[in-house]
Design a protein that fits this description.
Elements: H1 5-11, H2 13-16, H3 27-51, H4 55-78, H5 84-109, H6 115-139, H7 146-149, E1 152-154, H8 158-165, H9 167-175, H10 183-198, E2 202-204, H11 216-232, H12 234-267
Antiparallel strand pairs: 1-2
Helix pairs in contact: 3-4, 3-5, 4-5, 4-8, 5-6, 5-8, 6-10, 8-10, 9-12, 11-12
Protein name: CDP-diacylglycerol--serine O-phosphatidyltransferase
EC number: 2.7.8.8
GO molecular function: CDP-diacylglycerol-serine O-phosphatidyltransferase activity
Length: 268
């Protein structure tokens, strides 16, 4: 194949070095990106556990991926190592760890008993997670983001959506009752979580919580007790965390609607 003249010049040895690409990531950027890679490996290892029938290990691997995902961005900001590469790697890791991995784990655990509808429910979870992340990337450089400016998120974030999608599995492990493993129930729940990830509703973000100074010590103590509960009764504690998060969603919608009305009044 013959290249046009300008393309031949671009690929020639003399001109190729004029616009050099960066030789690699800086040492500071390696740390947060290594954490992101560890989160990705945890998500993929969760799939491996599920294939082997160890569904408890599979869920714990995805939860560990969520914990690592929660700190990589903060580490990048603290080290002033934010980069476009890190943002893209984070999105790809999230799509696999919180979209593909939960979908396959739920399918292997329950949904394969209803192959057609179960597979569509698993696909919905994975695809909607990818769509959510694509929407986030498309808006990342936009100055006007009403939900974000008010301290809220748009839809359920990917790690939280993955954790919520496992609620039937938490209940199954905690109670030992096979009713929670019924594929029709799991399929409906997975589809609902998929919809919540791509919805436009305002959900609470960390910056939307501003506890009063008088109860901050109590919150510190409560956080310690929650971690202790995770060590002693992990599955029931995860059920409680999911119930609390679900209860906070309508609270977040009401609070954002109130803030939106206040902004409209102040601008009028």
């Amino acid at each position: 194949m013959t290249l046009p003249a300008e393309d031949e010049e671009a690929f020639s040895g003399e001109d190729f070095g004029r616009h050099r690409l960066p030789r690699g990531l800086t040492l500071r950027a390696l740390v947060p990106n290594a954490i992101t890679s560890a989160a990705l490996c945890c998500g993929l290892t969760g799939i491996r556990f599920a294939i082997g029938g160890d569904f408890r290990g599979a869920v714990l691997a995805v939860i560990l991926a969520g914990m690592l995902d929660g700190i990589d961005g903060r580490v990048a900001r603290l080290m002033k190592a934010q980069s476009r590469f890190g943002a893209e790697l984070d999105s790809l890791s999230d799509a696999i760890s919180f979209g593909v991995a939960p979908a396959l784990i739920l399918y292997l655990w329950s949904l394969q008993q209803m192959p057609r509808l179960g597979w569509f429910a698993a696909l919905a979870l994975a695809v909607c997670c990818a769509l959510r992340l694509a929407r986030f990337n498309a808006r990342i450089d936009m100055e006007e983001q009403p939900h974000k400016s008010a301290g809220f998120l748009t839809g359920v974030p990917a790690p939280a959506g993955a954790g919520l999608s496992f609620l039937p599995l938490y209940l199954w492990v905690a109670s030992g009752r096979d009713e929670f493993r019924q594929p029709i129930f799991v399929a409906i729940w997975a589809a609902l979580m998929a919809f919540m990830m791509i919805s436009n509703m305002a959900t609470p973000g960390w910056s939307s919580f501003r506890p009063r100074k008088t109860i901050r010590l109590e919150l510190i103590a409560l956080t310690g007790l929650v971690f202790a509960a995770l060590l002693t009764e992990p599955w029931l504690t995860l059920v409680g965390i999911c119930a609390l998060y679900l209860a906070l969603i309508p609270v977040g919608v009401v609070r954002y609607a109130r803030l939106k009305r206040q902004r409209a009044v102040s601008l009028s």
